[in-house]
Specification:
Elements: H1 9-13, E1 27-35, H2 40-47, E2 50-55, H3 65-78, E3 83-88, H4 99-112, E4 117-120, H5 123-126, H6 144-152, E5 156-159, H7 177-185, H8 200-213, E6 218-221, H9 222-225, H10 231-240, E7 244-247, H11 252-272, E8 277-278, E9 284-286, H12 291-310, E10 314-317, E11 320-325, H13 331-346
Parallel strand pairs: 1-2, 1-9, 2-3, 3-4, 4-5, 5-6, 6-7, 7-8
Antiparallel strand pairs: 10-11
Helix pairs in contact: 4-6
Bound molecules: zinc ion.
Zinc ion (ZN) is lined by residues 31, 33, 55, 249, 282.
Length: 349
């Protein structure tokens, strides 16, 4: 992806951050999960100048959506400067009478409590079937009034739709170790084993079709919009959908993997789309994890990412086979990816 915007001299000559700058630069994590009343992570993030955006999501092994909403609204009340949250809704009862009214009134209530957006998850497209035994995809017309409501309220839809392309490959052909591990442990989500489920292409097409139908709604594609394997594919969608941004939650290893043989291409992608990419980790905390471990894990995640984005070192990561050069992004790009874009795309003041 060669383009006229990339790496001009004025950007090359701009100042860069250092490793020592990490705790002093204002930052946000645009996608994490806080499934606890404990403020350990919030306080530690605060001490490192990092705000958190916690995502409520209808995942089977998470606490109930009501419980998640209680955690997140409480944290938002106590830490409005450093903490925001995103609400979600259930689709399992979408064919029951009154589902739409109930869903809209719950989302309205969540917005009143401070939610900056709404999350939809891969159970749409990969799990839930309607009474005709058809998978309900994200472009299902029954979901349109919910999205219209989100747009009308000037909120943002965050979508984890589909999975990494690796999910449709045998484990030994997957590119990064974190996917090999996740899908070995979650055969129920490993689509290579379930050819009767909608294909990767079908998931992406349904999402793109939903975006065509809702050009006025801000949409953040979680996990690099499930196009993590190719910055060209992400770029193509960002060009096509002006109201689309992407978060990097749990997919930075895929960018590192592409940087092994395509450093310039990955770096150009960040320069060109510097207003459309959101820093995010997918860190998840609950009461089963000790405070020391919460802090240690968070810090090593944040600092390794920081090294990848700001330095020009040769790096290795446990998920990625091969060495890659860190992206050495200019300060102005770092500030956008870590703060400005997150505030802008979620209207966080
Ligand atoms: Zn997540």
């Amino acid at each position: 992806m060669k383009n006229q915007f990339s790496t001009g001299n004025e950007i090359r000559e701009a100042a860069f951050y250092t490793m020592d700058d990490f705790p002093f630069v204002q930052k946000f994590d645009a996608h994490m999960h806080i499934n606890t009343h404990s403020e350990v992570l919030i306080n530690f993030a605060k001490a490192n100048n990092l705000g958190l955006l916690s995502i409520n999501v209808d995942v089977p092994d998470f606490p109930s959506l009501e419980q998640q909403q209680e955690f997140t609204t409480g944290h938002f009340k106590n830490n409005p400067e450093h903490f925001s949250f995103i609400a979600s809704f259930r689709i399992q009862d979408m064919e029951d009478p009154g589902w739409l009214e109930k869903t809209i009134s719950r989302l309205d209530d969540a917005f009143e409590r401070g939610a900056v957006g709404v999350k939809v998850w891969k159970n749409i497209g990969m799990e839930y079937k309607d009474k005709n035994r058809d998978f309900v995809m994200i472009d299902d017309p029954r979901l349109d009034p919910v999205f219209d409501f989100i747009a009308k309220k000037n909120k943002t839809l965050l979508g984890h739709l589909g999975e990494p392309k690796n999910c449709w490959l045998p484990v030994e052909e997957m590119t990064v170790a974190n996917d090999k591990e996740y899908f070995s442990h979650h055969p129920e989500y490993h689509m290579y084993l379930h050819p009767e489920y909608p294909s990767y292409q079908k998931q992406i097409e349904a999402r793109d079709h939903m975006l065509e139908k809702h050009p006025d709604m801000r949409f953040v594609g979680a996990h690099l919009a499930s196009l993590e394997w190719s910055v060209d594919e992400i770029a193509e969608r960002l060009d096509r959908f002006p109201n689309l941004a992407v978060d990097m939650a749990e997919r930075i290893s895929h960018l590192q993997h592409q940087a092994v043989n395509g450093y310039e291409k990955v770096r150009d992608f960040f320069i060109r789309y510097q207003d459309r990419i959101l820093y995010a980790t997918d860190i998840t905390v609950d009461d089963s994890i000790s405070p020391e471990t919460v802090r240690a894990n968070a810090y090593s995640t944040w600092i390794n990412h920081w090294r990848f984005f700001i330095s020009d070192e040769m790096m290795e990561a446990p998920e990625v086979p091969g060495k890659f050069r860190a992206l050495h992004l200019p300060k102005e790009v770092i500030d956008k990816v870590y703060t400005t874009n997150i505030k802008k795309w979620y209207r966080i003041m």
